[in-house]
Amino acid sequence: MAGGNKGDQVQVKVRGNILSYRTYASGGTAVAASFRGTMVNINDEGFALQGADLSGANFAGIAEEAIAAETVTNQAGAPFVRVRRKGIFKMKLDGTSKAAAPTLVGELVYVHTAQAAAVDELVGLSANVSNYVLVGKIVKHGTDAEAAAGTSSDEVWVDIMGVAHTTLGDATYPTLANLLDASDVAKGAILVGLYDVLTYYAAVTVEAGLAEARNRTATLMSATGAQDITAPMQHKGVILVPNTAALTLTLITPTLASEKGLTVTVIKTTSDAEIITIDTESSETIDGAATYTALDAQYDTATFIWDGAAWNVSDFGEIYAKLALTSNGNGAALIGIEDAYANYAGANAEAVLAEIGGVAYCNEFTIQVGPIAIAADCGTIFVATKACTVKAISEVHGTAAGQTATLQVERAQGTEANGAGDDLLTDNANAGFDLEGTADTVQAGTLTGTGANLILAAGDRLNLVDAGTLTTLADMCVTVTLAWNVADNS
């Protein structure tokens, strides 16, 4: 006969409902008495044990026979027990589980923590067990004498699942059945494929697990007292510290190889000078030192990077911190303005651009006025045709005034008269250029710290405003450098 012929081999088969398991445990041990009709577990070595809520065990089924307790010293002498793997059996539900709902038909049940020979077939819901040794599913709840529904009876009939898998290949995972049971906490991460061995995540459902996995919300620490930066906090990545007194934060040592490269950014958010000391859990170094102590001013930021053996510090974190923790004045720095005089109050780039009229400079140009010798020559020297910004002002004269005299350059708007505008120079106590100064010497003016006054809109004017007596002044020349603003560069 062609195909499928196994020759002299005999294919052994069994119906599968009843199997024999050896009760021996390696190394020699006392085998407890097993009673007919009680639950039987298979341990991680494949040997039968009395049913119990044990780590690494699988529920095998219900014992078909009793065996006597005895001490065995080798595998060959250990007795076998026959176990029925399938069927519907009456069992007892623990008190906490039976109160969970009026009827529990369809619920999965597990070997209860208190299960023993004296309390045969005690099962419970997943919330009331420790190791999730799955027994089966409830198909009937309550005795025939009780109401068909609405009972809180401790009698249940269970369709057993012999040798059902209780792990997903690693003991740190809950059981597959447990994952499908909505009563357990922290399984959301596993359901979306995250190996959550350190229980970073607390979500219960798939949706919550996905949301939690992509959530990088910063952790807010307490204002006082020594604190640990826990593993879940470290994996969120950003730690905000509103400390009002000196305190120490301890970085927890990452334990997984996959955590090499883990980054933790710590930001001091308060304006006081109280220091934040960063320490490590197990004497690991931070940039070669025992601790890190450079966080003592508002928005001081340090990013700590785990290399598998020690922590390293990166200063790049400060840039990102200021992007996230903006406050008055930060916006100017973000667009490249060194705002030494704190002229801008914008908290972000957009606000400062709006504050200075959307300024980005291009096409600088220069206006030059002179020679000037008498006060009558002063007045309006420029009218803006579109938005521009004053970048520099200088002055030189061939002959000094001979008496105390100054020259101010101002921005005039609307109908402001000469002398009523905004002064642009701060030299000589805001009076402007000294016209009594050395002849033929260029004076570079110091511009006002009020940056908004340096911006001219279309129709704004630049005026020369003199003060004092210009008796001998001669050959004065004033040069103003401006730039058109990109926002109005039409």
Q: Report mean pLDDT, rounded to a whole number.
A: 76
As an assembly, this protein is single chain
Instruction: Going across the biggest sheet, name each strand in turn.
Output: 1-7-5-3-4
Classification by helices and strands: mainly beta
- Unreliably modeled segments: 165-186, 317-329
Number of strands: 31
Key features of this structure:
5-stranded antiparallel sheet, rod-shaped, 490 residues, 5-stranded mixed beta barrel, 31 strands, mainly beta, single chain
Q: How does this structure look, described?
A:
The protein is mainly beta and 490 residues long. The protein folds into four domains: 145 residues, no CATH class; 93 residues, Jelly Rolls; 30 residues, no CATH class; 128 residues, Sandwich (Jelly Rolls), CATH 2.60.120. 10% of the residues lie in helices and 31% in strands. The protein contains nine helices and 31 strands. A five-stranded antiparallel beta sheet has the order 1-7-5-3-4, with no helix packed on it. β20 and β21 form a beta hairpin. The longest helix has 8 residues. It is rod-shaped and about 130 Å long. The chain starts with 17 loop residues before the first strand and ends in a 5-residue tail after the last strand. About 7% of the residues have low confidence.
Helix and strand arrangement:
Layout: E1 18-22, E2 29-31, E3 39-42, E4 48-50, E5 58-63, E6 70-72, E7 80-84, E8 88-93, H1 95-98, E9 108-111, E10 122-124, E11 134-141, E12 155-160, H2 176-179, H3 188-191, H4 206-213, E13 219-220, E14 227-229, H5 231-236, E15 238-241, E16 247-251, E17 263-268, E18 276-280, E19 292-295, E20 301-306, E21 311-314, H6 317-324, H7 330-334, H8 349-355, E22 361-372, E23 380-383, E24 388-396, E25 405-412, E26 422-423, H9 427-430, E27 433-434, E28 443-444, E29 455-456, E30 461-468, E31 476-485
Parallel strand pairs: 8-10, 13-15, 14-16, 15-17, 16-18
Antiparallel strand pairs: 1-7, 2-6, 3-4, 3-5, 5-7, 8-12, 9-10, 9-11, 11-12, 17-20, 18-19, 20-21, 22-31, 23-30, 24-28, 24-29, 24-31, 25-26, 25-27, 25-30
